[in-house]
dUTPase-like domain-containing protein
Amino acid sequence: PPLGGLGPHRPPPTPDLTLTAPAAATVPVRRLRAATSGSAGLDLILQTATDFQLPGEVHVTPTQVMGPVPPHAVGLILPRSHAGSKGFFVIPGVVHANYTGVLKVQVWTNPPQQLPKGSSVAQLILLPSLVPGAQHKERSDGGFGSTLPSDSSVNINTSCKPL
C-alpha cells in the first residue's frame, strides 16, 4: 500500500438516489401515494437516465408521472430534501390542473454527474388553486411555455455579469 496505508485513490461514489419505480411507464397523479403519513409531497421518479456534461446545463427530464392534477388544484414541482446535498438543484415548476402530459423536472448540477433512471430528486406538492376568473382554455400535453402567444419571446442580456 502507498505511504500512510490509505490504499489507492478512488473517486467518490455516485450518489444512490434510486427508488423502486412503478411497473408502468407512466402513472396518473391520482394514483400516486405519499411515502409516509406525514409526507408533504409525492415523489417523482425519473423515466430516463440523465448525463450532465457541460457547466450550467439544465436538463428537462421526464418523470414516470402524468397529469392532470386534481381539479381546482395546482402542482408545485420542488426538490426533495436530499437533492441539494447530493449536488442536484431542481428548478421549481408549476403543473396546471388541465395539463395532461408527462410531468418533467428541470435539474441543474455541476458536471460531470449522472442521475440514473429511477432516481427521485423532486416531489410534487398539491395545493388548492385560488385564481379567480380564469378563462376556460383547452390544454393538453404541451408544456414549458406552450400557452404563450406565438409571437412572444425572451431576450437575455449576456453582457451583464453577476454581482
The radius of gyration is 19 Å. The mean pLDDT is 79. Residues 27-128 form a domain with the Deoxyuridine 5'-Triphosphate Nucleotidohydrolase; Chain A fold (CATH 2.70.40.10). Residues 85 and 159 are 32 Å apart (CA to CA).
